[in-house]
Write a structure and sequence with these properties.
With 201 residues, this protein is of the alpha/beta class. The chain folds into two domains: 2-134, Response regulator (Rossmann fold); 143-197, Winged helix-like DNA-binding domain superfamily/Winged helix DNA-binding domain (Arc Repressor Mutant, subunit A), CATH 1.10.10.10. It has helices at 7-17, 32-42, 58-68, 83-91, 104-115, 123-134, 143-153, 158-165, 169-183, 188-197; strands spanning 2-3, 28-29, 46-49, 73-78, 96-99, 120-121. The chain has a six-stranded parallel beta sheet, with helices on both faces.
Length: 201
């Protein structure tokens, strides 16, 4: 099953598997909710899952699929390769993580590998993970940085955070920059999600 919110991407992927004797595209979906419905009716062995989609995103759909259909193997196929995206997907239990610039032979091989119970990672992702193992663990966010993040999680803008903590907006931005680096993310929403997953807030 192919899950992507862009019809042209789904068309392209379907074309990659046309004529391949041992692979059949049994369903398509444009978002996570539709993917769950299609999984129930089509019962695919492998799902190629985009990460960023409206409504229920890829990781949310992966977690639901793992709970409702543990036999289905999910391979992420995305343009995003940030540490935060990779970590969330791997934590959700994916069988693979590939990037959309992968050649057709690699995609076909990945589906076969996943269907056989194996795992597959894009070479760039493998390199990132190995590089990450060699780094010193990032320092934990400070108490003040977590105070900023808690307010951000409640929907406060930088100006409101500054007013509440009696600090300048520039200081708020500095704290956020440090939090992003420590959590391995690149935006406010991802920082909140990462902090909640680690039970920091």
């Amino acid at each position: 099953m192919i899950v992507d919110d862009h019809p042209v991407v789904r068309d392209g992927l379907r074309g990659i598997f046309e004529g391949v004797p041992d692979i059949e595209v049994v369903a398509e979906a444009g978002d996570g909710h539709e993917a769950l419905a299609r999984a129930r009716s089509a019962a695919p062995d492998v799902v190629l899952m985009d990460l960023r989609m409206p409504g229920l995103d890829g990781v949310g759909a992966i977690e639901r699929l793992a709970a409702d259909h543990p036999g289905i193997r999910v391979v992420v196929l995305t343009t995003y390769d940030t540490d935060a995206d990779v970590s969330r997907a791997l934590a959700a239990g994916v069988a693979g993580y590939l990037l959309k610039d992968a050649p057709r032979e690699e995609l076909q091989a990945a589906v076969r590998t996943a269907a056989a119970g194996g795992r597959v990672l894009a070479q760039r992702i493998t390199a990132q993970l190995i590089d990450g193992l060699g780094r010193k663990p990032a320092a934990a966010p400070t108490r003040r940085e977590l105070e900023v993040l808690r307010l951000i999680a409640r929907g406060a803008a930088n100006k409101e955070v500054a007013r509440a903590l009696l600090i300048s907006e520039t200081t708020v931005k500095t704290h956020l920059k440090h939090v992003f680096a420590k959590l391995g993310v690149d935006n406010r929403a991802a920082a909140v999600v990462a902090a909640m997953e680690r039970r920091l807030i």
